Backbone:
C-alpha cells in the first residue's frame, strides 16, 4: 500500500513540475498572490489525480467518487486506503512497465475483477479453466473423427495413370495386382522330407513331396510319399490327386483319389482336412476307402520351433489306423503304426534348408505280429540327414 501511495505521489509531483505554466513561474517573481499559484498547482494535481484514478479503475481498483476533489487532490492527500490493492502485485507491474516501456491505457473500460482469483493467476494456476473440449494432439489415443471421403475422390478420368506411366507399364501393374490378390493361379511345390536314413540293417531313404496349383480358395493339390531300403524294392509308395477348398482362414477340405504304387494294387477314395491349428501346428488328416473296401486313416502333425531366425527345430508325429486287418499289406486293425521324430534344420535361404534328426517307428498290435512274421523288427530307430525345399 505504501509503495502505491509513494508511486502515485511521485507521479503527481512529476506531472506538476513538468507543466509549462509552472515552469514559467519557477524562476520569476510574480505579482499575483501566492494563493493563485497554489490554486494552479492544485488544479494540475487534480488533473493528474483524475488520470491516476481512471488508471486504477481500469485495473479494477475501487476509487471512491470525490477522491480527486480539490481539497483532497493535493500531492499526498489522495486516500489510497480506499483502493483495494490486496490482490495486486504492483512490484511485478512496475517491473513490467519499466522493462517494456508500456503503461496501462487510460481509455480502457472499467473491469469487474470481483470474481477473479488473482492469486491463482499470479502463480500460473489454470485449475479454473475447462479444457475438456480441447483435443491434445500429442495424445495418440485422442479420438480422431472418421470422415467420409471427399466428393473429389475417384472423380478423375478412368485410366488416367496411362497418360503418365504408359499403357504397357500399367498393364503389368494390373497383372501383378491380380496375382497378389488371388485374382490369378499359383504353383507351389514343397519337398518336406527328402532324407537318407541310417539304421540297423540296411540303410534306407524316404521322400515326402506335396504342392498345389490354384488360388486361395480352390486348388488342385498333389502329394507323394514313399520309403525303402537300399538294395531292395521300394517298400511303399503312393501318390494323391486332390481337390482342395478353403473352409476357414487356415483350413482346407480335401477330397480325391490315392493310388498305391507298390505291393497289391489299391486305389483309394480320399477325404481329409489340412491346415494350421492354434500354436502353429500343421495338421494333415485323411481317411481312405480302398477299392477292396478297406478303411484306413492317417494323421500327421508338425510344428516349427525357431531357435533363431534360421535355425529351426521341428518335432513331428504320424499315426496310422485301420478299421480291419489287411494281412497282405501287413496292417493290423486299430492302431497300426506310430512315428515320432525331431529334425533340426538351417535355412540358408527360406526356400532351401538342410537338416539332421532322429526318427523312431513303432508297429503296434497285429501290425507288430505281421512284422515279426516277416522277420522284421517292429521298432526301428532312424538317424536322418536330409533337405527341405520349396518353390
Residues:
Amino acid at each position: 500500500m505504501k509503495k502505491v501511495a509513494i508511486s502515485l505521489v511521485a507521479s503527481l509531483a512529476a506531472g506538476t513540475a513538468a507543466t509549462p505554466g509552472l515552469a514559467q513561474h519557477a524562476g520569476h517573481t510574480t505579482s499575483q498572490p501566492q494563493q493563485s499559484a497554489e490554486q494552479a498547482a492544485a488544479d494540475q494535481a487534480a488533473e493528474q489525480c483524475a488520470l491516476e484514478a481512471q488508471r486504477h479503475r481500469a485495473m479494477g481498483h475501487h476509487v471512491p467518487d470525490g477522491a480527486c476533489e480539490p481539497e483532497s487532490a493535493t500531492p499526498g492527500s489522495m486516500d489510497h486506503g480506499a483502493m483495494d490493492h490486496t490482490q495486486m502485485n504492483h512490484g511485478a507491474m512496475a517491473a513490467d512497465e519499466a522493462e517494456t516501456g508500456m503503461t496501462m491505457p487510460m481509455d480502457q473500460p472499467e473491469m469487474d475483477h470481483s470474481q477473479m482469483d488473482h492469486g491463482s493467476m499470479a502463480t500460473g494456476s489454470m485449475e479454473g479453466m475447462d479444457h475438456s473440449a480441447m483435443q491434445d494432439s500429442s495424445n495418440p489415443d485422442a479420438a480422431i473423427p472418421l470422415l467420409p471421403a471427399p466428393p473429389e475422390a475417384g472423380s478423375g478420368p478412368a485410366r488416367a495413370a496411362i497418360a503418365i506411366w504408359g499403357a504397357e507399364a500399367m498393364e503389368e501393374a494390373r497383372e501383378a495386382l491380380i496375382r497378389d490378390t488371388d485374382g490369378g493361379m499359383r504353383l507351389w511345390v514343397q519337398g518336406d522330407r527328402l532324407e537318407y536314413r541310417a539304421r540297423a540293417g540296411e540303410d534306407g531313404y524316404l521322400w515326402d513331396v506335396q504342392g498345389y496349383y490354384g488360388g486361395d480358395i480352390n486348388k488342385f493339390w498333389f502329394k507323394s510319399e514313399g520309403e525303402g531300403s537300399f538294395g531292395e524294392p521300394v517298400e511303399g509308395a503312393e501318390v494323391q490327386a486332390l481337390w482342395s477348398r478353403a473352409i476357414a482362414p487356415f483350413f482346407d477340405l480335401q477330397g480325391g483319389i490315392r493310388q498305391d504304387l507298390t505291393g497289391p494294387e489299391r486305389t483309394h477314395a480320399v477325404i481329409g482336412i489340412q491346415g494350421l491349428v492354434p500354436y502353429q501346428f500343421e495338421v494333415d488328416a485323411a481317411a481312405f476307402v480302398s477299392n477292396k473296401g478297406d478303411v484306413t486313416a492317417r494323421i500327421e502333425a508338425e510344428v516349427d520351433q525357431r531357435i533363431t531366425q534360421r535355425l529351426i527345430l521341428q518335432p513331428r508325429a504320424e499315426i496310422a489306423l485301420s478299421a480291419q486287418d489287411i494281412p497282405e499289406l501287413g496292417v493290423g486293425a486299430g492302431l497300426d503304426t506310430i512315428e515320432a521324430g525331431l529334425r533340426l534344420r538351417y535355412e540358408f535361404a527360406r526356400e532351401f534348408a538342410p537338416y539332421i534328426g532322429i526318427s523312431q517307428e513303432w508297429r503296434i498290435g497285429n501290425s507288430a505280429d505281421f512284422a515279426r512274421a516277416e522277420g522284421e523288427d517292429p521298432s526301428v530307430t532312424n538317424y536322418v540327414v536330409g533337405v527341405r525345399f520349396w518353390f
